[in-house]
Amino acid sequence: MWVREFILLGLSSDWDTQVSLSVLFSLAYMLTVLGNFLIVLLVRLDSRLHTPMYFFLTNLSVVDVSYVTSIVPQMLAHLLAEHKAIPFVSCAAQLFFSLGLGGIEFVLLAVMAYDRYVAVCEPLRYSVIMNGGLCTMLSITSWVSGSINSLMQTAITFQLPMCTNKFIDHISCELLAVVRLVCVDTSSNEIAIMVSSIVLLMAPFCLVLLSYIQIISTVLKIQSTEGGTKGFQTCASHLTVVVLCYGMAIFTYIQPLFGPSALQEKLISVFYAILIPMLNLIIYSLRNKEVKGAWQ
Q: Quick one: angle between helices 15-45 and 52-79, nearest 10?
């Protein structure tokens, strides 16, 4: 039996809280979109930023803007709406885009870690290794892998019978929240979620760890204090974002049966939709000396 629409329960049923959240989230959304748009424009206009690092940063900005746009506008509309319904097709589309863009970002962060590894550990061969062809291939791999995983997960989830249960205890059509509506055994779906999480989370995360182990090992061998400090500064901000992104996602998806509560899932989703894109903007761009120099 098909459900024509779902009801998103959201973060709170208190009107004052919803109004406050709508104002806060609206400001965060506008800042994220405007900031990332300016970064993309700056990278394209300033020839000094035409490097692999900023090519991947542009990809990350596009992913972040697309991700927040797939979730936040609908969430803002529901915060101020009495009837918080979302059509079946819109719910499926939201799940596809949000899940796909999230997967793309996880792979892209691993690619950026590899880029930093080459920059620190193989500085003399950096331009040879990170050539245009390889950068393009790594970028395409990120987008294709995330999209394929999302397409499979969305197709599998929405072909299952939802019966008459249409209340999603979440801020958006999130994978685990939708799977809970299914009125048949979902153990195979949970296994599929775990497998895809291992592929798109643990594999890139292990690559990130290997990259940073090599980076730290190389930096410790640098005799110059200034050189060692510069090497750590090059990657410290990236590592901060990586730990936050991968850590919460692994906590949520690797063990869906024993994962976070519904409230924790909502807060984690808000973290990914609102805070992570802003952190990416601040850490990768606003604190970056080359970007600051390009503004001047």
A: 160
